[in-house]
């Protein structure tokens, strides 16, 4: 059985592209969270939650994007995403329209953060076997 070698286009230098894409998108989601906290703030706790966590996620995503931090930064972002999903019940605005904003943003954050965290930092090599 022979194995064909994959070209570099299928195996970019490490998975830095995956890390950068996921972290960059997560940064944009964090900026959206900050803005939405001001626009649709239902309570002061809810507004502070969105703004403070948005800033934290933006900082962690930016440092992960640049490669300055290890995968732990993305795992912290994922935990914050889980918090966003459950916070409508904690802050008592479950059932209101803004609840869906938090849930959707939280889900997106979890997905992007896990995707960034699981990006391998070592480059894989592919060989051809006769």
Structure characterization notes:
The chain is mainly α. 68% of the residues lie in helices and 0% in strands. The protein has one domain. Helix 1 (16-39) runs antiparallel to helix 2 (44-66), helix 2 runs antiparallel to helix 3 (72-91) and helix 3 (72-91) packs antiparallel against helix 4 (97-117). The protein is elongated and about 40 Å long. The N and C termini lie close together (8 Å).
The Rg value, from CA coordinates, equals 18 Å
Largest sheet: none
Helix content: 55-70%
Q: Provide the structure class.
A: mainly alpha
Strand element count: 0
As a percent range, the share of strand residues is under 5%
Distance between the termini: 8 Å
Number of domains: 1
Q: Element order, helices and strands?
A: HHHH
Structure annotation, total helices: 4
Average of pLDDT: 81
Unreliable spans: 5-12, 122-130
**Coarse shape:** elongated
Write a short abstract of this structure.
The protein has 130 residues and is an all-alpha fold. 68% of the residues lie in helices and 0% in strands.
Topology:
Blueprint: H1 16-39, H2 44-66, H3 72-91, H4 97-117
Question: Keywords for this structure?
Answer:
mainly alpha, 0% strand, 130 residues, disordered C terminus, 4 helices, elongated
